[in-house]
Every structure is written in C-alpha cells, then in structure tokens.
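## retry 2 of 3
previous attempt timed out at serialization; input unchanged, resubmitting
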Amino acid sequence: MPQNLPGFGFYHDNQAQNASAIYTRVLSPKLVNTGSIAMSRLAMSHFAENSSTNDIAGKLGITGVGFGGSAGWGAPYFDVQGYSPFGDFWLATPMPMQAWDTIVEARDTLSWQKGLHAAKSGASGRRFIWPMWAPVQSRGYYSFTPGFTTETATNDETGSALASFLLGLPAARQLQNGLPSMNLPAMVCGGYRTGHVAGDAADDDQFGRAL
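## retry succeeded, writing output
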C-alpha cells in the first residue's frame, strides 16, 4: 500500500483460518444429540517497507528511537504544515503490528420428540484470545509550523513551516516509550431450553451467563 512518496509504503499480510467438526448421534428414536467444536483465527502482520531492511532514523543520527528492534526500523514521520507528510506511517495502522485474533467455540444440543411434543436444550462456550504487539511511534513523530521562523516570533504569517523543518525546529514531537503489547482473553458461556407442542409454542425458557 503506497504512501505519498516512494519507499514508505506498508504491507498487510493477513491470514484467515477456520475449522469445525460436528458429531450427531441418535441415542434413541426420540432422542438425538449433536455436539460441535469450531475455531476461527485471523493472523495479522502489518509492517512498513523499511522494516528490518533500512534503519533510516539511525542513519539520520536520531537517538532514543527504534523500540521494537529491526522490525521497527524506518523513517520518522514528518508533518510539515502546508505540505504532504512523509516518512513511515504510524497513526491509524501502527507499523509494525502483529495480532492473532482467535475464537474457539464448543456447543452441544440435545433434542427430544414424542408425538406432538418436542423439547430441546443446549449449552455453548466461547473462548476469545487476542494478543497484539505494536510499536506505534517507535521512530518518532515531528510536526513543523511557521512559528519559529516568523519575523516577530508571533503568528504574523511571515514564517515558513518548510524553513522550520530545514532548521530542525519542530513545533511538536512525540515518541513512544517502550514496547506496547496486550493480551485480551475472554470467556462467554450460555445455554437454552425450549419446549413446544407442534403448531403451538408452549414453553420458552432461555438463560445465559457471561464471564
């Protein structure tokens, strides 16, 4: 995915995987049990064109940056007011970023029928797993405005953001400190029970519980 200037694009390497298994057993002419297990996984790997290949921030002599090792290599992000920004993008989609979004679900349903009467009960459990690693501003962000190059050191519209950039005078700069990562697990359980006479609902009882 290209950016404003060549050499600062980024890659999205996403892989989706799904698997399921269902087992149905007839316990008797009136009773049937169905069990299933399923897994869904989305592995996302986002990285900049310069990741692991070109340590631009290091070559520029910028110290105190580069969290994440060689995967975080690249250029700082420069935002010069009035011009298109350039550098390795970091804001909306952190670069680099790795995440593994996984859901595992198991459920079981027991169905009973005799004449016009039928009943069904079941339960399910879902396990959510979401670890993620993303050095958001490991190379630094710099914003340049005309403020430092005006004639009166005030906002008199005489300065140039490009001149401030060439002089190395950013109005704001940001840097991530450390290497953020997270792991967001969750467990959800639920169940239900229904019963009816064919053609006329007689009972409906649902319940659920989330952990």
